[in-house]
Write a structure and sequence with these properties.
With 117 residues, the protein is mostly helical. It has one domain. It has four helices and no strands.
């Protein structure tokens, strides 16, 4: 249970961090200057992995839906003109695809892990 609490703390911290970074008018430059799509994919790979460990009893499809809604909310916030950001449904698709990839892998590991017993 302690490890779940740690992952929950990490998940919610990462979620808040991702939201703040996506909401900044001018996010800080990162080494290598990765593209916006790379940043979206990396963020949602991490968020999906952390969520799967933080909430192992929650169905993976529920985690996916929550992350997909979060990705959509980020794009809605980026549409606020005062932020100077540009929303993109392609970014949302990248978010959803990254989360789906991780959660499908977790689901496969769980399924085959149970089958091996």
């Amino acid at each position: 249970m302690l490890i779940e609490r740690l992952f929950q703390l990490l998940f919610w911290s990462a979620l808040v961090f991702a939201f703040v970074m996506a909401s900044l008018p001018q996010p800080p430059a990162l080494p290598g200057d990765p593209s916006d799509k790379v940043l979206h994919v990396l963020a949602f790979l991490v968020l999906a992995g952390l969520a799967a460990f933080a909430y192992p009893r929650v169905r993976l499809v529920v985690i996916f839906l929550g992350l997909a809604l979060f990705g959509g909310a980020v794009e809605v916030v980026q549409a606020i003109p005062q932020l100077g950001r540009e929303p993109s449904w392609v970014d949302w698709l990248a978010d959803a695809a990254a989360a789906a990839a991780v959660l499908l892998a977790v689901g496969a590991i769980r399924f085959f892990g149970r089958s091996a017993r």
